[in-house]
Amino acid sequence: MESSLVKENPLLLPLNKDKTVYDGFITVQERDFRMRILLPPDRQLTRARLHCCSRLKHLLRGHEHIVKQRLQQSADLVSFVLELKTVLEVCLKSSPDCRSIPPPQYYSQLISEMETLGWGKLLFIDTEFQILKLKAEDSSGRQHILTIKLKSKHPAEAPECSADLPVPLALTWTLQSTLDQLHSQFLLVLESLTEFWDVLDEIDGKTWILEPEKPSRSDTMRRIAIGNNVSIKVEVDPRHPKMLPECCLLGAEHAVTPLRNKLNANMHLWNPDSSVLHNLRDVLEIEFPSPATHEKSWLRALPSSRQSFSIVFGECPYCSKPITVKMAAHKS
To answer: Which N-terminal stretch is annotated as signal sequence (predicted)?
Structure first.
């Protein structure tokens, strides 16, 4: 038994002549764990005691009853250590803090791929060298981030990829794929969405956006202020951004009805070659208010507003949220 135990666990050795005390390390998934096994004089496992290092205790937390059961049921010490290793393998797989360390070739492969891609595209890499954030720029100069989570068997396993997009990110991966090829695929996805972002950037830059307060690249909806406590919510299709979007007019019925009638009557005038904003102006026969940041005079004219020195305080008539604007000092 002793020879078999040492053969399977060369770092776990007997400390006395009677071989009732074993101390050392057991290796599971390329990780070493310190432990000591104390056997009674008759060497019966049912009365054996097990002392573990802090890492091993932490890993086995919640599984102590299983270890005790294996200790009671194992025929000999060799069988018990084998059972203990099996339990540890299960614990390691389910513990995010104790994942197996990738082999050396993983790191050499990663460095080689990054050199091909270019280190200038790397924005972030975690201490485990498994989560990367790569920057990318579309043809309109917008900056984007591709987050890649590599598996320990990279490149044999496909990585998990995510980005701030209005559509699901579907990138292909084969055994021959590289990070450079993945980045190139991402650029093609960005180009397919360029027109969508151009449409929304124009709306964001030339109208007063009520919702969302801080639009992200994945947002497809905009709620735009019109005036007289009326707004319009538009949902732009990322795949067909210049087609008539889903529209919903919000506000008092007497103020919304004329606009709804114009929308229904002029819907046939929608020109898919023009931008959404240009079409909305033509179809609704209106001019949209400028962005709120440029409406100092409008805010000051509200009955509910007040001014203290160079700061104007007021309340948004659309969402009732407080607005504060600092007035620029007039030069003499």
So the answer is: none
Residue 172 lies in a domain: yes
In sequence order, the β-bridge partners of residue 51 are 36
Q: Which CATH number do you get for residue 310? A: 3.30.40.10
19: Cα separation from own chain's centroid:
53
Does some domain include residue 332?
no
Looking at residue 132, its amino acid is L
**Tally of structural domains, the chain:** 4
What's the 3-state SS for the chain?
CHHHHHHHCCCEEECCCCCCEEEEEEEECCEEEEEEEECCCCCCHHHCEEEECHHHHHHHCCCHHHHHHHHHHCCCHHHHHHHHHHHHHHHHHHCHHHCCCCCHHHHHHHHHHHHHHCHHHEEEECCCCCEEEEEEECCCCCEEEEEEECCCCCCCCCCEEECCCCCCCCCCCCCCCCHHHHHHHHHHHHHHCHHHHHHHHHHHHHCCEEECCCCCCCCCEEEEEEECCEEEEEECCCCCCCCCCEEEEECCHHHHHHHHHHHHHHHHHCCCCCCHHHHHHHHHCCCCCCCHHHCHHHHHHCCCCEEECCEEEEECCCCCCEEEEECCCCCC
| Paired tokens of 256 | 């919304």
User: Cα separation of 128 and 258, whole Å?
Assistant: 60
**Among the three residues 157, 190, 223, which one is the final residue of a domain in this structure?**
190
The whole model's pTM is what? 0.64
Last residue of a domain, one of 34, 65, 98: 98
**pLDDT for res 326:** 74
**pLDDT tens by residue, 128-157:** 899 999 999 999 999 999 999 999 889 999
Stretch 237-245: mean pLDDT, rounded? 96
In this structure, what are the phi and psi dihedrals at residue 82, rounded to the nearest 5 degrees? -65, -40
209 and 257 part of one domain: yes
Q: Which residue segment(s) compose the domain that 34 sits in? A: 2-98
Choice among 63-77, 215-229, 283-297 with the minimum mean pLDDT = 283-297
CATH number at residue 120: 3.10.110.10
